[in-house]
Amino acid sequence: MSDGNLRKALETSKYYLEMVSKTQLDANEARWLIDTTVANFAHYYNSGFMEYRKSVSEAEDAAAVEWTGRGATFRDALGREFIDCLGGFGIFNLGWAHPRVVSAVQAQLAKSPLPTQELLDPLRGMLAHLLAEITPGNIQYSFFVSSGTEAVEGAMKLAKLYTGKSGFIASVGGFHGKTAGSLSLTGKAAFRRPALPLHPNIYHVPYGDAEAVEQQLRIAREVGNDIAAVVMEPIQGEAGAIVPPDDFWPALRRICDEYEVLLIADEVQTGMGRTGKLWGVEHWQVIPDIMTSAKALGGGVMPIGAFMATPKIWQVFNENPFIHTSTTGGNPLACAAAIAAINVTLEENIVEQAREKGLYFRQHLEALSERYRDVYCGISGKGLLLGQHFVDDETGYAVAAGLFKRGVLISGTLNNSRVIRVEPPLIISYAEIDAILNRLEDTLCSLRTSLSLPSVGVEQSLPLSAMTLHPWSTAV
Hints:
By secondary structure, the chain is α/β, with parallel strands linked by helices. It has a domain at 100-347: Type I PLP-dependent aspartate aminotransferase-like (Major domain) (Aspartate Aminotransferase, domain 2, 3-Layer(aba) Sandwich). It has helices at residues 3-21, 27-45, 49-52, 54-57, 87-90, 99-109, 122-134, 148-163, 180-185, 189-192, 210-223, 248-259, 311-319, 332-347, 350-371, 393-405, 430-451; strands at residues 66-70, 73-76, 81-84, 141-145, 167-171, 202-205, 227-232, 262-266, 290-293, 305-309, 376-382, 385-390, 408-409, 411-412, 419-422. Helix 8 (148-163) crosses helix 13 (311-319). Belongs to the class-III pyridoxal-phosphate-dependent aminotransferase family. Keywords: Aminotransferase, Pyridoxal phosphate, Transferase. InterPro entries: Aminotrans_3, Aminotrans_3_PPA_site, Class-III_PLP-dep_AT, PyrdxlP-dep_Trfase, PyrdxlP-dep_Trfase_major, PyrdxlP-dep_Trfase_small.
């Protein structure tokens, strides 16, 4: 590395830090930030993002570069306002920059941002205690990481250590992450095939089919394929907010007990109130052996994940506390955010908000799907993890793009691009929900007109405002 390059990097870093310190941008600064961000992504991060990000492809005269947000709305560098109906794929349950979560992180930052690795850091113990109090059954111990995929990796390792077995059963369409172990559980070929071979002794069954799980376990027993655990999402998120039959999770619990395998609930997306229960498995009163959490656990402020289990299972970690470690996982800043997130979730009745607002949102989405049966296949999900199922990928993208142009951020799912996910912050207001619904109907009407589709279905609408909101409108 030449001295000239290092001097250039020093000057560049100084200017970047000046931009970081700014709370507002003038027009020239905003344009510079937009152009620099697009160039940096294209040349130094991943040029493929430019093709798929609506912020670039659908942003009219200038790319939308995110800048600041509060609650369920955020603004880009040019001050254009969006209602967030994506929620960072489940991160922003408490909205953007919830003040109590930010305050907790700032308070800890002033003391100690990272642990010594040798002394006992108090916040890690505090968070582990809180999780033991709010998780189902006798789940008691936790290990902290920085992401959902790490949490799944840890859960797999724990299951293998405890059982002495190596195999797992997961579901078609399931999403558990993209590192090697978690990717082996993920149930979509487009993600798995390029990285093959992955973790061996993995079997996939149709989601929601408990008989298929039992059949696979029966076959595994007969041929000697030792299975450590069955791994499922309580509700499949990336596959399109797919809710299983009501007897599925109770049957899984019975089957796992009968065949002496562990039951792992991947609550990375469904946990912390998203589905109208604090944990997704609580819809069916099922207690798993191991659980994972991430995304919303950090309160939308810090990245943190966790895998948790009962004392009996955790004993293999207690016997050798250095068999699984992380230098930065469970750092004091992340733990402070998670402690505050749990406090806010309980004190502000976030779970109840998700349940009630989810019912309201779904009622109106189902009415829209009836009026636009030429483009909709149906609505799925629970709470504020909802899926709008469209007739094809192109229609789904057109709806997402149309909403983006009308100031609503929404996206398809990673496993099923024809499903547009509805996953806003759980603190979203009813006025903001109504604004999203109005802009959605405006988008659907425009789409029908552009495609020359006939008007199909029920024509009487629910009592929403009839106004059409224009791109970048700040009205809610």
